[in-house]
Write a structure and sequence with these properties.
Largest sheet of chain A: 6 strands, antiparallel
Structural class of chain A: alpha+beta
Number of domains of chain A: 2
Helix content of chain A: 25-40%
CATH topology of the largest domain in chain A: Chorismate lyase
Distance between the termini of chain A: 30 Å
Order of helices and strands of chain A: HHHEEEHEHEEHHEHEEE
CATH superfamily of the largest domain in chain A: Chorismate lyase-like
Number of helices of chain A: 8
Oligomer: homodimer
Largest interface: A-B, 51 and 49 residues
Amino acid sequence: MAIGYKELKADILQRIVQGYWPPGSLLPGEVELAEQHGCARATVNRAMRELADDGIVERRRKAGTRVRMAPMRQARFDIPIIRKEVEAIGATYRYALLSRDEVNVPDWLCGRLGVSRGESVLHVECMHYADHTPYQHEDRWIDISVLPAARTADFSAVGPNEWLVAAVPFSTVEMSFRSTAADRVLAAHLDCAEGAPLFQAERSTWWEEQAITFVRLTYREGYRMTTRY
Amino acid sequence: MAIGYKELKADILQRIVQGYWPPGSLLPGEVELAEQHGCARATVNRAMRELADDGIVERRRKAGTRVRMAPMRQARFDIPIIRKEVEAIGATYRYALLSRDEVNVPDWLCGRLGVSRGESVLHVECMHYADHTPYQHEDRWIDISVLPAARTADFSAVGPNEWLVAAVPFSTVEMSFRSTAADRVLAAHLDCAEGAPLFQAERSTWWEEQAITFVRLTYREGYRMTTRY
DNA sequence: AAAGTGGATATATCTAGGCAAAAGGGAAGG
DNA sequence: CCTTCCCTTTTGCCTAGATATATCCACTTT
C-alpha cells in the first residue's frame, strides 16, 4: 500500500490530467491523502510541493491545494553557453572579437547598469559563428569600476561571456526578449537585409546589488527559442 | 545554533559565490554539514537538493556534492493569461473575434498538429486590446476531430484561449518564440507598418499524445518579455 | 592486464511526530 | 451592514532515526 513520492506525484498528476480533479478544484488535504495512500504526510508533502514547483497546482495555507486554472503558467528555458548551443546542433563553433573599447557610459545604459554619467565602461563587440555562418552578435558592456579585472582580460580568443562565467558568479539576472529590425551594422554582421526582423535578448547581471554587465545578444535571422514540457 | 533550510541554502550559496568553495570543488557531506550547523540531516538535504535543482551544485551518490563548473542556468518565464497581463499594466482589456472558419488543414500545419492532409480544422482569428490599442493578435487552429465541442463553442464573447483552458483538462505544451516581419494583415490589425519587426510566440498543445490546438500569438510592436531571477 | 566482485560510503527516500505561521471563516461588537 | 478579532484548519518546516540505492574503489579472479 505504501508508495514513494514519485509514484504519488505521478498518481496525482494522472488524475488531474484525466479530469478527475479539474482546473480550479480543491484537492484533498495532506493528511487525507496520506491516509488514502498509506504513507507519511511528509511524502505527500514532497509530492505536492514538487507539483507546485512545476506549476501544476497552487498551494496556500489554510486554503488548501488547488489545480491551476491555466494549463501552463510558466516556461523554463535553458540559457546555454553559446558554444554549447552551436555544438549541440552539430556545427563547428567559431568566435571573433570585433571591437573592444573603454568609453564613457552612454546615457541609455546608465539606468540599466545603475552607474552614474561620466563613468567609464568597457565595451566589447563580438560575433559567434556556427560553421562559418553568423549565429549571434554580442554587444557587451562591463562596469570596470566593479570588475577591474576585465580591463586586463584578453577577449581575442575567448568570448567575454565565457570569461565572465569563469571569473564572476552572479546573484541576480534580468533578461528580456524582443523583436528588433536589423540596422546597418547588424545586417552586415549577421548577413541579412537591413530592416530584417531579428530576435534579441538583453541581460543585466548583478552581484550583491552591484551591476556588473549588460549584454545585448542578437540572433541570426530566423532563430527560434523553444521549450517543451 | 539551529537554522532553517533557507538560511542554510543562502549560507552555502554565499560561500560558493565568494569563492570559498570554487567551481568543481567537493562540498562536505550532509552529516558533516548538519553537525556544523546544528541541524538535522534532512534540513541539509533540503538545502542541497534545492541548490542542485537551481543548477548550482551537482550531486551524485557516493561521489558527494560538488560545485558545478559551468552553471548552465535556466530562466523561468511567466506566461500570463492575456487578460491578466493587460489588466496588470492598468489598462482595460478588450477582445474581438475577427473570423471563424472550418477549413481543410493547410500543409504547413499538418506536421505541427500531427493531423493528416484533407482533415478539417477550426480556424479562429481574434484580437486582444489594451485600452483600445492593439496588444496581441491570436491566430488559432483547433483539431475538431479531437475536440468536437469546439465546433459549437461561441468565441464572440470569450476568447478561444480561455475557452480551451476551461474545456481541456491538462496537456503537454511546446512553445517557441521568434521574430517576424509584419505582413499586410498583421500590420493592419496591430496598427504598425508593413515589415515592422514583431515578437511572435507559437504554442502547440497536446493531450494524451493527441494534438489539440496550435496558436500563433503576435504581439504589438515593441513588446518585451521579461524575467528576473 | 582485463574483468568481475564486494564492501564502504554518500545521497535518496521514508516514517512519525511536533511546532509554527498564514489565512479563511465566523462571531462579536459598533 | 460593516469592520475587527479570534479560532481552527491547512500547509510549512523541523527533528531523529532508519532503510534503500547507487557507485567508487580496492581486491580478486581469469
